[in-house]
Specification:
By secondary structure, this protein is α+β, with helices and mostly antiparallel strands. The protein has one domain: Alpha-Beta Plaits, CATH 3.30.70. The protein has two helices and four strands; from the N terminus they run E-H-E-E-H-E. Strand 2 and strand 3 form a beta hairpin. The radius of gyration is 13 Å and the shape is globular. The protein starts with a strand and ends with a strand. InterPro entries: ABM_dom (IPR007138), Dimeric_a/b-barrel (IPR011008). This is Quinol monooxygenase YgiN. One of its GO terms (molecular function) is monooxygenase activity. It holds the Pfam family ABM.
């Protein structure tokens, strides 16, 4: 069953341009990862430093494999350098 993962980021407002570059670079590997059905980056219209990345995955297992990859040295990204708070991940599944 396909799932949706929401990754909520609070970016450093003074580094928005750099942050968007880092997010774009990071998402190249995300989009290429097996089981990724799509990724969209959205921002709060009143607070552009509040970003939510909406990811669609083929299954819970595909999402879990991706999260495990990101925890490895090969999968590590620069996202940690641009956030002002810990990212919040919410994984959602259809109820019907």
């Amino acid at each position: 069953m396909a799932i949706t993962a929401l990754l909520e980021l609070r970016l450093d407002p003074a580094r928005l341009e750099e942050s968007h570059r880092i997010i774009d670079e990071t998402l190249v590997a995300t989009r290429a990862f097996e089981g990724c059905l799509g990724v969209e980056v959205t921002a709060d219209v009143k607070d552009p430093a509040h970003v939510v990345i909406v990811e669609s995955w083929a299954s819970v297992e595909a999402d879990a494999a991706y999260r495990a990859f990101r925890a490895t040295p090969e999968g590590r990204s620069e996202l940690g350098s641009i956030v002002t708070a810990a990212p919040v991940l919410t994984v959602l599944a259809p109820v019907r």
